[in-house]
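User: I'm preparing a small set of examples for a lab meeting where we compare how different chains pack in three dimensions. I only have the primary sequence for this one, and I'd like the structure in token form so I can line it up with the others. Please keep the answer compact; I'll paste it straight into my notes.
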Amino acid sequence: MVIKRIFLKLLKKLERYFTKNLVSKIETNSVLLAQIHINRIKELKEVNSLKDVEFKVFSEWGEDGIIQYLINNVEIKNKIFVEFGVQDYKESNTRFLLINDLWKGLVIDSDKDCISEIKKDDIYFRYSLMAKNAFITKQNINNLISASGISGEIGLLSIDIDGNDYWVWEAINVIDPAVVICEYNGLFGSTYPVSIPYDSDFYRTKKHFSNLYFGASLPALVILGEKKGYDFVGSNSAGSNAFFVKKNSSARIKKYSAKEGFRVPVFRQSRDIQSRLTYLDKKESEQILGNMNVINIETGKTILLKEIF
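Assistant: Understood. Below is the structure token output for the 309-residue chain.
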């Protein structure tokens, strides 16, 4: 029995070793392939839409490629990023920047276990990365960033907290990013500038079992971007993230209105009361969200979603 236990323990260690090395080789090959894409992007004389430059290494969709296109066409004074809503950081918008471009930055997530996993990852000692565990609100976000020694002009800000995204971006004033990425809720459409009402304790699943009630519409984010001095330069083709560039540095990049740059989400993430995926289409999703409140950020009026559906 003792020998068997020793053998099984050794087997597990070997499994972890080979799994870790296999993952490492896959990541290395992905980064090398991405560098070919980057060279192609740099040679492009005209980009009709951000879809032309998409590629994925660590991002959820094609954001890695879009980011490379933007940072190669925008003046970046400080190669620093801030990203929140990263979970365990295996899939994120800034991991490729950290590894390939040697940027430094701050990541924040509300899950303590996820932050612990990030700190166990080799990237935490190989690269200049800070990871913080915090539940982000519009009241604490500026202090979280400045307490990490980050302020003023930075390269990129990425916002994906599945909730108060609009209100948190509106509140941020301690940093001045050249590029901003913010998740939008495609179900809210391309016409009305609406957001969920601000709630400092907002948790997506608790607010509505479907997991579909969160964030803001693309028009709301475009209006906010304009107020903060940004041009909207498009969405990823999956219909989840909007990209913004500082007005004084976006001359070479095509600009869009919210309606022009809107992309219908390709994913189906609805859930039932037991949190099981239900794969509802757009019309079915609208039916179950119809009685939920949103705020028109231009008028300040609270309306029901069915009024805009």
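A couple of notes for your slides: Strands lie at 80-84, 104-109, 129-133, 152-159, 175-183, 194-195, 230-235, 241-246, 293-296, 302-304. The mean pLDDT is 92.

User: Perfect, thanks.
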